[in-house]
């Protein structure tokens, strides 16, 4: 495979991985909002993502806000300007809970000699999403630490 063909293949896979990652972040935000009991349970619906049952906001203004936020996030990822993504939950009288995804800075996708296998990447995102679900079992009284790394 020549170098131009390799760059084209990596650019296409890069675009797909960025979209997958952005969709993961959007799903994670929905799950965090549900697990933290920020909004009533009845504004969420069940959905299967990566083979996991998650809670997603029903289509409404809040859903649109989260979606638009993630579209802007996708642009920032493409421009390679992010070091981390944080979701900060602030409840009156409590310390904030921070969910953070750190983004490792290496080479841009299209400059890499090879990219992770799509199946491997999806499995990685699935494990992250599962950790969010397990950390924040909804509507239980478990105690959580103030900062969660996903």
Low-confidence stretches: 137-150
CATH class: Alpha Beta
Question: What's the CATH superfamily, by name?
Answer: HORMA domain
Share of helical residues: 40-55%
Count of all domains: 1
| Distinct helical segment count | 3
CATH topology: Cell Cycle, Spindle Assembly Checkpoint Protein, Chain A
> How far apart are the termini?
36 Å
Overall average residue pLDDT: 76
Strand order of the largest sheet: 3-4-5
Compute the number of strand runs. 5
Please compute the radius of gyration using only Cα atoms. 17 Å
Estimated structural class:
alpha+beta
Strand proportion, as a percent range, falls in 15-25%
Main pleated sheet: 3 strands, mixed
Report the CATH architecture: 2-Layer Sandwich
Q: List SSEs in N-to-C order.
A: HEEHEEHE
**Globular, elongated, flat, extended or rod-shaped: what is the shape?**
globular
